[in-house]
């Protein structure tokens, strides 16, 4: 029981990342009809917002190291600590959550620039061309990031008071030994609230209504005299923000490097296909489902039964789904079934 | 209807519903060999559904479609084509990237090679007979001057004629035409009527779905009138023209 | 694909053979005539020609063709380890095994079209890649990659054991350097010939028709799936051949050959040169491998030398601009190139040539004013 419970928990954070990326992919595909292979790069850009924020907060000055008295030694101390002491240290510790403030405007700008500059011109072109051009863009983005930040993963800090593990076992009346890192729990809750926010936005705002109508029938909405162009831009920016925030908060779990985006993208596409192309609840459900299944398949008991299954489980499920139920778990009938 | 004549297509008791909508209810049709059979009816009467059931695009809920003694229900489009049924679409389905000549050669290959044949080594240019036949068909439809043009650049009327050529080169036993003159200028329409008349003299059986009464009455030997998914009248053109039920179906809606 | 006279194709073939065999001569002025690079031109040329048979003719965009490249390499290295250092069995094994893989993957993937097909092939390739790194380590030697060892059985070469690792050979001729290039070149010519025959055949015409309009195709009486599967398997075998040649010229195989970046590279080669054209993919492969070679060798110092004719501040500025694109940044160039081609020249270099040719023809016609324009137009569009 405990083992199963912990595997479900383990699947949640990865599943949450898949769900968030898949959500953005589905928004872009459902409303704009765009197959965006650069969406993973947006996730990665978000992660590097956190990296930049950390770099920014730890800009340092050389000061005399007083602990060494034999000779004149200097050490680097961030200005924040010099100015504000312990408070400064705390701020630096909190760099990941703080970088959300930076990631939102940055991702909105990136999203708008991408849609206006490139994506817009590909609405009328074939899916193959959309795939190719966004694939090219993904390479460009990731190489630019590599140029500025290097190729090595960049570990990020977790704020002190959530750095330990949560005694989830006691929460649910299970074994006390059952613990789970706080941060992963936070990531899950964070993702859940973003997903909730996006759904509320779609459900209760006029913008959201247009977007949903657009997903159902793009041509008609265009005829209603609604400025589709501007709304498309906003939808795309929203998708970019969702991906970016997913990336920011994921940095303490997986130290970001420049090619993390593509790995997540490939998996997230698979998630979208499993959930059903164009279905938002499908994308979210499939994201969590596949995350959890992936975590189960990496249990030793299962690996000894089916060696290597943890490496391919997601792809295997996608293949089965596409063949057996091409519209995906929650896709509408007749949408992209061929 | 005398039983001595050969029945090419026999639709019996076909029903089809979409959601709760009864698109076709208990359709019975017998198409005789060599005849031009028109199916007319107001918008949404189920004409296109009818045709789609015949070519395997839709599977009826009940009933059967027999082509001679071959059942067509449940067969895929390519199997249905292989037994000798060709179809012209409402919006022309051609190969836009290919030249006219190539457009016509492909169906000729299908006729000759069956549904699959791996002939990757003999060049197409060596297939003299095939090319000649394709050029002949294009000439027949007055498209020979454009035969090396890419078909995407043709006018809509020409595309329809090309599609007709693609069907004719297969010498189908039954040709289904879905509004062959819709959206055509009058002189193009007349030209198409001429062509269809010429085919008729060769004894090819045709089913035509059409809005244009001028076309229907200049071509059809037999007319079936469809309204709200059911056949309300069936007979020779003159009988149908005078039928009060038909007039009601066509005009009734307008008076509401 | 088009109906062209056999004589023209014969000329094309003769010119092609001459061009390929004299590559070491005419590529010397641009510094690309050394054997390693020439081998790469030929090998990736084969890969791209094969990919073009699938993507160019049928329009099905596979994002997992690198899997077949990898399978071909592994099979060839195993042939070197177990049987003999002769390259003939190695390339036969590589090609056939890739073909078998292509039958399996193709059979499943071709049940869907469009982006589903792309994602399915991508999923299969990633699966192969992940498995090569994990469970299949006994076969693939995981991260280290599969290499020759002194202790390999090599049952047919047992007599000729010397010290050190043996090298690949073709009946005694070592497969490194120029002999290796000529071996690849002969296979490239063969591969091109087969591709030409397919393009000109009724079969190729049917594939082009599938790409053009699948609905009409099925109402025309074709069962499209077997056609697509055959095209998929042929292009998979081309990839397998290319993979085994990579191993034949340098006997090792690693899983990174199967990664999606490698799949993406062959897509780029094909569209850069000209999707669906005969020569285009080959041009694309050559250009990419050539510039990869040049650009990756550049560094900041070399750039300073190149721009040293400029005034100091201009020199620094140019180096600053160009530097991210060279050396380690070669992939940035590749990505940017990818975008530029798809945005501005979806037909690739061959379309560019056709446009230039058409422009000249138009200028010529203005002065000549003859009516040769119509057949000429038909011919350029067929090429």
Q: If you had to describe this structure to a student in words, what would you say it looks like?
A:
The complex is a heterotrimer of chains A (338), B (256) and C (383). By secondary structure, chain A is mostly helical. Chain A has 15 helices and 4 strands. The mean pLDDT of chain A is 83. Chain B has a domain at 1-75 and 207-256: 3-Layer(aba) Sandwich (Rossmann fold), CATH 3.40.50. Chain B has 9 helices and 10 strands. Chain B has helices at 47-54, 77-82, 100-113, 128-140, 156-168, 186-201, 213-219, 237-242, 244-255; strands spanning 7-18, 21-32, 36-40, 62-67, 70-71, 85-88, 174-178, 205-209, 222-227, 230-235. A 6-stranded mixed sheet of chain B has the order 6-7-8-3-9-10, sandwiched between helices. A 4-stranded antiparallel sheet of chain B has the order 2-1-4-5, covered by helices on one side. In chain B, helix 3 (100-113) crosses helix 4 and helix 3 (100-113) packs parallel to helix 5 (156-168). The radius of gyration of chain B is 19 Å and the shape is globular. The two termini of chain B are 36 Å apart. The mean pLDDT of chain B is 84. Chain C has a single domain (3-278), classed as ABC transporter involved in vitamin B12 uptake, BtuC (Orthogonal Bundle), CATH 1.10.3470. Chain C contains 18 helices and 4 strands. The relative contact order of chain C is 0.15. In chain C, helix 3 (35-58) packs antiparallel against helix 11 (224-249), helix 4 crosses helix 11 and helix 5 runs antiparallel to helix 11. Residues 369-383 of chain C have low confidence and may be disordered. Helix content of chain C is 71%, strand content 2%. In chain C, strands 1-4 form a two-stranded antiparallel ribbon. Chain C has a two-stranded antiparallel ribbon with strand order 2-3. Classes of the chains: A mainly alpha (338), B alpha/beta (256), C mainly alpha (383). Chains in contact: A-C, B-C. The interface between A and C is large, with 38 and 42 residues.
């Amino acid at each position: 029981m405990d083992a199963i419970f912990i595997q479900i928990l383990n699947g949640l954070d990865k599943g949450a990342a898949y769900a968030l990326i898949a959500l953005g992919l589905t928004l872009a595909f459902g409303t704009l009809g765009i197959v965006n292979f650069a969406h993973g790069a947006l996730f990665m850009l978000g992660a590097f917002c956190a990296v930049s924020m950390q770099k920014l907060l730890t800009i340092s000055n050389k000061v005399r190291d007083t602990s060494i008295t034999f000779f004149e030694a200097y050490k680097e101390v961030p200005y924040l600590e010099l100015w504000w002491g312990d408070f400064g240290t705390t701020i630096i510790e909190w760099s990941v959550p703080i970088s959300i403030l930076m990631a939102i405007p940055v991702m909105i700008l990136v999203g708008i620039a991408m849609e206006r500059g490139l994506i817009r011109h590909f609405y009328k072109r074939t899916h193959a061309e959309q795939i190719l051009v966004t694939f090219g863009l993904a390479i460009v983005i990731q190489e630019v990031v590599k140029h500025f930040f290097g190729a090595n993963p960049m570990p990020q800090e977790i704020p002190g008071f959530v750095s330990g593990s949560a005694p989830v076992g006691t929460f649910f009346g299970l074994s006390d030994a059952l613990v789970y890192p706080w941060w992963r729990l936070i990531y899950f809750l964070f993702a859940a609230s973003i997903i909730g926010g996006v759904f509320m936005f779609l459900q209760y705002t006029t913008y959201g209504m247009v977007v949903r109508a657009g997903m159902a029938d793009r041509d008609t909405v265009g005829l209603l005299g609604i400025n589709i162009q501007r709304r498309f831009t906003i939808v795309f920016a929203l998708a970019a923000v969702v991906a970016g925030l997913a990336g920011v908060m994921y940095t303490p779990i997986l130290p970001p490097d420049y090619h993390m985006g593509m790995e997540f993208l490939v998996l997230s596409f698979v998630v979208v296909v499993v959930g059903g192309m164009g279905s938002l609840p499908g994308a979210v459900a499939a994201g969590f489902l596949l995350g959890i299944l992936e975590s189960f398949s990496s249990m030793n008991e299962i690996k000894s039964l089916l060696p290597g299954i943890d490496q391919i489980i997601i792809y295997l499920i996608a293949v089965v789904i596409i063949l057996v139920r091409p519209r995906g778990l929650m896709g509408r009938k007749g949408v992209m079934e061929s | 209807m005398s039983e001595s004549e050969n029945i090419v297509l026999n639709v019996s008791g076909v029903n089809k519903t979409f959601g709760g909508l009864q698109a076709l209810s208990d359709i019975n049709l017998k198409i005789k060999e060599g005849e031009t059979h028109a199916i007319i009816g107001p918008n949404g009467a189920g004409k296109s559904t009818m045709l789609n059931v015949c070519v395997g695009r839709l599977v009826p809920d009940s009933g059967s479609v027999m082509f001679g003694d071959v059942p067509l229900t449940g067969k895929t489009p390519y199997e249905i084509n292989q037994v000798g049924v060709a179809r012209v679409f409402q919006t022309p389905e051609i190969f836009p990237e290919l030249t006219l000549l190539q457009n016509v050669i492909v169906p000729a290959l299908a006729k000759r090679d069956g549904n699959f044949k791996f002939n990757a080594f003999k060049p197409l240019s060596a297939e003299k007979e095939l090319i000649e036949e394709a050029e002949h068909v294009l000439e027949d439809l007055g498209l020979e001057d454009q035969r090396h043009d890419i078909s995407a650049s043709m006018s809509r009327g020409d595309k329809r004629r090309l599609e007709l050529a693609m069907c004719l080169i297969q010498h189908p036993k039954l040709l289904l035409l879905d509004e062959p003159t819709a959206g055509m200028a009058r002189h193009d329409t007349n030209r198409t009527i001429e062509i269809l008349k010429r085919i008729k003299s060769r004894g090819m059986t045709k089913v035509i779905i059409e809005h244009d009464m001028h076309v229907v009455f200049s071509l059809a030997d037999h007319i079936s009138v469809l309204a709200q998914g059911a056949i309300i009248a069936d007979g020779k053109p003159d009988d149908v023209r005078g039928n009060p039920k038909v007039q009601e179906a066509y005009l009734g809606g307008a008076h509401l | 694909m088009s109906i062209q006279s056999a004589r023209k194709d014969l000329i094309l073939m003769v010119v092609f053979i001459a061009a390929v065999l004299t590559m070491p001569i005419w590529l010397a002025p641009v510094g690309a005539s050394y054997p390693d690079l020439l081998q790469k031109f030929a090998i990736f040329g084969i890969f791209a020609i094969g990919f073009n048979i699938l993507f160019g003719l049928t329009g099905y965009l596979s994002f997992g063709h690198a899997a077949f490249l990898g399978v071909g390499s592994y099979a060839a290295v195993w042939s070197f380890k177990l049987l003999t250092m002769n390259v003939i069995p190695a390339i036969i094994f590589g090609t056939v095994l890739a073909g078998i893989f292509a039958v399996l993957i193709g059979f499943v993937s071709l049940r869907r079209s469009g982006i589903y097909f792309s994602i399915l092939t991508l999923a299969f390739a990633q699966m192969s890649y992940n498995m090569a790194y994990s469970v299949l380590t006994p076969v693939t030697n995981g991260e280290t990659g599969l290499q020759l060892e002194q202790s390999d059985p090599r049952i047919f070469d047992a007599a000729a054991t010397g010290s050190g690792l043996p090298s690949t050979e073709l009946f005694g001729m070592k497969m490194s350097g120029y002999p290796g290039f000529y071996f690849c070149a002969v296979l490239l010519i063969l591969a091109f010939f087969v591709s030409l025959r397919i393009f000109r055949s009724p079969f190729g015409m049917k594939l082009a028709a599938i790409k053009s309009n699948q609905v009409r195709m099925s109402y025309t009486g074709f069962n499209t799936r077997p056609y697509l599967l055959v095209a998929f398997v042929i292009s998979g075998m081309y990839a397998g051949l290319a993979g085994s040649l990579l191993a034949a010229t340098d006997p090792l195989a690693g899983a990174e050959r199967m990664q999606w970046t490698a799949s993406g590279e062959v897509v780029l080669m094909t569209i850069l040169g000209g999707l669906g054209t005969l020569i285009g993919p080959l041009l694309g492969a050559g250009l990419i491998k050539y510039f990869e070679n040049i650009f990756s060798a550049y560094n900041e110092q070399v750039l300073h030398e190149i721009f040293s004719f400029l005034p100091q501040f201009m020199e620094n500025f140019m180096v600053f601009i160009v530097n991210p694109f060279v050396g380690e940044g070669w992939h940035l160039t590749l990505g940017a190139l990818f975008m530029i081609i798809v945005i501005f020249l979806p037909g690739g270099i061959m379309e560019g040539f056709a446009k230039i040719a058409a422009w000249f023809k138009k200028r010529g016609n203005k002065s000549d004013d003859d009516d040769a324009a119509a057949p000429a137009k038909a011919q350029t569009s067929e090429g």
